[in-house]
Design brief:
- The complex is a heterodimer of chains A (281) and B (307).
- Chain A has helices at 27-68, 84-115, 118-123, 129-157, 166-190, 195-211, 223-229, 233-245, 253-280, and strands spanning 70-75, 78-83.
- Chain A has 281 residues and is mainly alpha-helical.
- Chain A has one domain (27-280).
- In chain A, strands 1-2 form a two-stranded antiparallel ribbon.
- In chain A, strand 1 and strand 2 (78-83) form a beta hairpin.
- The longest helix of chain A is centred in the first third of the chain and has 42 residues, at 27-68.
- Chain A starts with 26 loop residues before the first helix and ends with a helix.
- The model of chain A is unreliable at 1-12 (pLDDT under 50).
- Chain B is α/β, with parallel strands linked by helices.
- Helix content of chain B is 32%, strand content 29%.
- Chain B has ten helices and 14 strands.
- Chain B has helices spanning 44-51, 73-77, 95-105, 110-123, 139-150, 169-184, 196-202, 220-227, 269-276, 291-299; strands at residues 4-15, 18-29, 33-37, 59-64, 67-69, 80-83, 157-161, 188-193, 205-210, 213-218, 231-236, 254-258, 261-266, 283-288.
- In chain B, strands 6-7-8-3-9-10 form a six-stranded mixed β-sheet, sandwiched between helices. Chain B has a four-stranded antiparallel β-sheet with strand order 2-1-4-5.
- Chain B is globular, with a radius of gyration of 22 Å.
- The chains are: A mainly alpha (281), B alpha/beta (307).
- The A-B interface holds A 1-2, 4-12, 14-15, 26, 29-30, 32-33, 36-37, 40, 116-118, 120-128, 279-281 and B 9-10, 15, 23, 25, 52, 54-61, 73-75, 77-78, 80, 82, 84, 86-93, 97, 101-102, 104-107, 149-150, 153, 214, 216-218, 226.
């Protein structure tokens, strides 16, 4: 029998899960992979993308709008009265970006990570986990942008708004999609099954929808709740996007953008750390 | 350049206080197939994961292709081909698309990958299935597609984690044929398997793990010669178990009982077989000792279900 040679080496300190992201352009082929899958299913998903917000707009915008009439909102140039459907459309498009990014970074990413073992296959090639997480983050952002683009098309067709500033709203909505995809990836890293995501939607996203001024002005909220809602990512996305639907610029763009960037950077860092931990085990 | 393609020294890995790999060292020479065998939970998959840089060892070092793992993980993986235990094929892509998309992860140009795809599909005996999705393939076809995918970057070293588990004999033989072809082409292979006939057929050397420790290492035939008598006579049927108490036992060098079967290990089977012929109710099977006997001798016959 061969002798067993024992080589003593010092313990190699495992790198911290909180270390800085180690990124290269290797996220691109992973993003491209998701794009190629999606291209096969894009037409049916387009129908869903248009149908859902259209139902919201018809049911709430025209239905509720007839009851509510006009809504007063604060703008840099003073108080402005706008039709409820315009108020709703400008808020719900942010909600659509949030939902699209969250669905992609939760259910779809989890399928690729856990069920199909796609990530494991990719990491057997020279692509690091950091780049895979980066690709998923950008991909969910792209999906949000795609959804938002189709909805904007519907809104333009319905003549809800034709503000030229919608062109500026478009990249903001992509940014908001990326923020929510980073947050969702934290929960993806923690999930043991799909059921977990139901909690995320019902306990986080749904309350946020009602607190962020999507359906009614935040002035209706009690003061304490309103101060709390100032710091919600969806609130800040709505405050950036809504004025652009009315051909105005946001009142506090720097503050809103900074909050969203802080959420994005913080959530990406945490999501990456927790995903590294999941894959190290 | 080192004479070894991969050298692992003193690998140790613990999870939550349990040591799953304990001071394991081995190396793979150019053009060699090293088999890692062991019962469930022996530490085979963890060893492979460390070699792939997916898990960092608590102690020990791995050098592959002149580079250090996990520091140079990506540079090493650029020259590796991996077939993992569970298929990770993309269910939404055809066979050809699976290869194309996987080649991109290596930074290969589409034109370069497309040029390789027909040859890879032909190698995997899947040329007629280029447009079929993995869901439409049999288990053996999916494993061969996984192997073709692992070859897309023309790797020098292949790491195969139980590549034939769950396949029928025809599919398994076809897989063996392909792996032998790769060895003839000069590729090196690290293979884990539960099938001793597979290990004996493909591997030039074996590493036997149990409870995370290396318990034997060497050429399959040498190991059998070192640890076992040359012949085995299996005895079953009514009264087989009584043999253990009878004088017949003295004709075998070693006797093992498993369930209703008595395994007699001997260098000279003839006297034993002659005596057994006088017991018409007993059925006997005389065969040379094989790797499975060795494996069971080294790791015991008890069931391992923790793995």
């Amino acid at each position: 029998m061969n002798t067993i040679v024992t080589v003593s080496t010092p313990p190699s300190a495992a790198p911290s899960i909180w270390r800085a992201p180690d990124l290269s352009f290797r996220w691109w082929p992973v993003f491209l992979r998701n794009l190629l899958v999606w291209r096969k299913l894009a037409i049916p998903s387009l129908v869903g993308n248009i149908a859902e917000p259209l139902m919201w707009l018809v049911a709430f915008g025209y239905g509720m709008g007839a009851l509510v009439g006009q809504v007063n909102i604060g703008t840099p140039t003073g108080e402005q009265s706008v039709p409820y459907i315009l108020f709703l459309a400008s808020g719900s498009i942010c909600m659509s970006a949030m939902n699209a990014a969250s669905f992609e970074a939760l259910y779809s990413a989890f399928s690729r990570m856990h069920v199909q073992k796609t990530w494991d296959g990719i990491m057997n090639a020279p692509v690091s986990l950091d780049n895979v997480v980066m690709a998923e983050m950008l991909w969910a952002g792209f999906k949000a942008m795609f959804t938002v683009t189709t909805i904007l098309g519907v809104m333009l067709a319905l003549n809800i708004s034709h503000s030229p500033k919608l062109l500026a709203a478009w990249p903001v909505l992509l940014g908001a999609g990326i923020t929510f995809s980073c947050i969702a990836l934290i929960f993806n890293a923690l999930a043991q099954g799909y059921d977990f995501f139901t909690y995320y939607f019902t306990l986080f996203l749904t309350p946020m929808m009602f607190l962020s001024g999507v359906f009614f002005p935040r002035e209706q909220l009690p003061a304490a709740l309103r101060s709390f809602s100032d710091w919600l990512p969806l609130t800040n996305a709505v405050e950036l996007v809504r004025p652009m639907f009315m051909d105005q610029w946001p009142a506090h763009p720097a503050r809103n953008a900074l909050v969203l960037v802080a959420y994005t950077a913080g959530a990406f860092w945490v999501a990456l750390a927790l995903t590294r931990k999941r894959f190290r085990a | 350049m080192s004479e070894f393609l991969l050298e692992a020294a003193g690998l140790t890995k613990s999870y939550g206080g349990a040591t799953v790999v304990n001071d394991v060292s081995f190396e793979i020479a150019h053009g060699e197939c090293l088999g890692v065998i062991g019962p469930n939970g022996a530490g085979k998959t963890t060893t492979i994961r460390m070699c792939l840089g997916l898990t960092a060892p608590d102690h020990g070092s791995i050098r592959a292709l002149g580079l250090a793992m996990p520091r140079d993980a990506l540079a090493i993986k650029a020259q590796l081909g991996v077939v993992s235990q569970f298929d990770s094929l993309d269910p939404d892509f055809s066979c050809a698309e699976n290869l194309l998309v996987y080649g991109r992860y290596f930074g290969m140009k589409d034109a370069q990958i497309r040029e390789r795809i027909p040859r890879l599909l032909e190698f995997a005996a899947l040329a007629h299935k280029a447009d079929a999705k993995p869901g439409e393939l049999s288990g053996g076809m999916r494993r061969r597609l996984s192997l073709a995918r692992a070859l897309v970057n023309d790797p020098r070293l292949l790491m195969l984690d139980e590549p034939t588990t769950g396949l029928d004999p025809q599919a398994r033989h076809l897989m063996w044929e392909r792996l032998q072809l790769l060895l003839q082409q000069g590729k090196s292979i690290l293979l884990t398997t539960h099938f001793m006939d597979e290990a004996e057929r493909l591997c030039s050397r074996l590493l036997v793990l149990d409870h995370g420790k290396k318990i034997a290492q060497g050429r399959p035939r040498d190991l059998i010669g070192q640890h076992l008598e040359s012949d085995v006579v299996e005895v079953y049927g009514n009264g087989a178990l009584q043999l253990v108490e009878s004088p017949l036992k003295a004709l075998a060098a070693r006797v093992e009982v498993s369930g209703e079967t008595v395994f007699c290990y001997t260098q000279h089977a003839k006297p034993l077989l002659d005596e057994l012929a006088a017991h018409p109710k007993l059925r006997t099977l005389h065969r040379p000792a094989n790797l499975e006997d060795l494996f069971l001798k080294l790791t015991g016959r008890q069931i391992r279900e923790e793995g």
